């Protein structure tokens, strides 16, 4: 993994991205930390042209986005148009909003719609991924729903955006999942998992938790991963400080 492949997920900084002025300040701070790329998610209703200008002005490449779940399933053309305006070709379905994973019909419909939407993105020269949480580890037909989704969609239409924290939280082996999805994983969310003496899980800066990122990254690289995106759902204090701590750890310990 090269440092130029490490990106920041702006969802981590969502409270600082709700206006154009705030986004510009945030972008400047992210670039000053050392990141050269970002994934757009959680930002406010800012015109696309202004978002593009801000990122370009601060020297940040938009490597990926998250588009609205229902729009991806029901109006993928609109999501494609949005990404075209941003000049980005990689996105992910962020969360299975309203999907009942105890319903065979709904699980099968989700996979079918994801495959169809992915075909729309592919024809436009773009790539659709699936961003998992832990809910996909509900069992369906004897295996996690996540396995069903990947088994019942074409790798040409749907790739993986593994979230390392949520794989582990759901009971999966992160390294094994990365191996399993080799060749189908152009981006990954690097998110560390920790635990407190009060018996509660916490989101950690990279290197501060328990996940084996040296092995995770080695397998992701071997499988063709292009973007390693740092995300932290909640931070103990200043989220910019958390993103810097993660970046500094990655730079010192995980760059090949």
Write up what this structure looks like.
This protein has 256 residues and is of the alpha/beta class. It has a single domain (3-253), classed as TIM Barrel, CATH 3.20.20. It is 41% helix and 19% strand. The chain has helices spanning 20-33, 48-57, 69-74, 76-86, 104-123, 145-151, 164-169, 174-180, 213-222, 239-253, and strands at 6-9, 37-40, 61-66, 90-93, 127-131, 139-140, 143-144, 159-163, 187-190, 192-195, 201-204, 227-230. The strands form three sheets. Strands 1-2-3-4-5-8-9-12 form an eight-stranded parallel β-barrel, surrounded by four helices. α1 (20-33) packs parallel to α2, α5 (104-123) crosses α6 and α8 runs parallel beside α9 (213-222). The radius of gyration is 17 Å and the shape is globular. The model has no long low-confidence stretch (mean pLDDT 98).
The percent range for strand residues is 15-25%
Number of domains: 1
**Secondary-structure-derived class:** alpha/beta
Return the CATH class: Alpha Beta
Strand order of the largest sheet: 1-2-3-4-5-8-9-12
User: Low-confidence segments, ≥5 residues, pLDDT <50?
Assistant: none
CATH architecture: Alpha-Beta Barrel
What's the pLDDT, averaged over the residues?
98
Counting H and I runs of at least 4 residues, what is the number of helices? 10
Question: How many strands, what sense, and barrel or not for the largest sheet?
Answer: 8 strands, parallel, barrel
Total strands: the figure is 12
Dominant shape: globular
Q: For the CA atoms, what is the radius of gyration?
A: 17 Å
What is the helix content?
Answer: 40-55%
- Return the string of H and E elements: EHEHEHHEHEEEHEHHEEEHEH
As for the CATH topology, it is TIM Barrel
- What is the CA-CA span between the terminal residues? 6 Å
Give the CATH superfamily.
Answer: Divalent-metal-dependent TIM barrel enzymes
């Amino acid at each position: 993994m090269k440092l130029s492949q490490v990106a920041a997920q702006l969802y981590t900084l969502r409270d600082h991205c709700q206006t154009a002025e705030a986004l510009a300040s945030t972008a400047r701070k992210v670039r000053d930390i050392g990141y050269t790329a970002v994934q757009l998610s959680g930002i406010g209703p800012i015109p696309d042209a202004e978002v593009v200008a801000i990122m370009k002005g601060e020297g940040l490449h938009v490597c990926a986005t998250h588009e609205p779940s229902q729009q991806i399933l029901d109006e993928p053309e609109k999501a494609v148009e949005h990404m075209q305006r941003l000049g980005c070709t990689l996105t992910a379905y962020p969360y299975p909003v309203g999907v009942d994973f105890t319903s065979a019909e709904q699980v099968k419909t989700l996979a079918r719609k994801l495959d169809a939407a992915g075909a729309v993105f592919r024809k436009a020269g773009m790539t659709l991924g699936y961003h998992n949480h832990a809910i996909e580890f509900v069992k369906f037909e004897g295996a996690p729903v996540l396995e069903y989704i990947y088994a019942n969609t074409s790798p040409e239409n749907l790739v993986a955006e593994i979230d390392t924290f949520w794989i582990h939280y759901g009971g999966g082996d992160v390294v094994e999942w990365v191996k399993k999805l080799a060749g189908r994983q152009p981006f990954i969310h690097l998110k560390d998992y920790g635990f407190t003496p009060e018996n509660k899980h916490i989101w950690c800066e990279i290197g501060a938790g328990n996940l084996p990122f040296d092995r995770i990254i080695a397998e992701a690289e071997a499988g063709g991963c292009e973007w390693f995106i740092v995300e932290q759902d909640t931070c103990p204090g200043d989220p910019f400080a958390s993103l810097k701590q993660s970046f500094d750890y990655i730079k010192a310990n995980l760059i090949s």
